[in-house]
Amino acid sequence: MRIRGAWLLLMVALAGCVGGPKGKPSRPTHRPPPAAKADDPRELKQCLVDLGKYGATYTQLPDRWFGNGCSATGAVQLNAIGIPVTNLGAMKCRTAERLSAWTNEAVQTAAMAWLDSRVVKIESFGTYNCRPRNGVAGAKLSEHGRANAVDIAAFQLANGRRITVEKGWNDSDPNVRNFLRAVHKAACRRFAVVIGPAGDAAHYNHLHFDMGGDGPYCR
Ligand SMILES: [Zn+2]
After folding, report:
1. If 154 and its partner were Cys, which of 17, 40, 92, 164 is the partner (CB 3.0–4.6 Å)?
2. How many angstroms does the Cα of residue 208 sit away from the middle of ligand 1?
3. Where is the region Disordered (predicted)?
4. 1 CA distance to ligand 1 centroid (A)?
């Protein structure tokens, strides 16, 4: 039951990745391609312990390879990290663990400091997605293609307010601007790569976080 549940979650999580090179669905496989770099099993074990420290509940997902360099290995499906985060699919453990740390340590503190309310829900644009960077054909594979990234779009507050990155980044209310800059800055201390609206035009409506090898990068 547990395994079947995990499979179902994985298929839901990966539903966005159906486009092979010529529109053909890329069929996932359990067998790593020859060039695949294996995850360090000790790091994964430690990461799962760390994830538990934030009270996160999760399902470990089977390693999958999708062609076009895309994969989801050492990944989990987060079920809960204190508050709901929408649209989360497969994430490599360390990215999931950093997201849990950021949510529990930084987001609530910033929300209370600037907006006098707790965050009750975070809206994401998702995690795994087999595509090149910024969706530009021919560009390097996005960390989303390795289940190693998450895009944060909005925050719902206990007082009923909803703060979106798109409208809030340059909001007329300085408290909203300060809140978003505070959570952005806090993410830079926790993730390898953080790109927000100040980074480039492609990130006008979300904060991108990943644990790829290009960091540290904070824009
Ligand atoms: Zn992203």
Report:
1. 164
2. 4
3. 21-41
4. 32
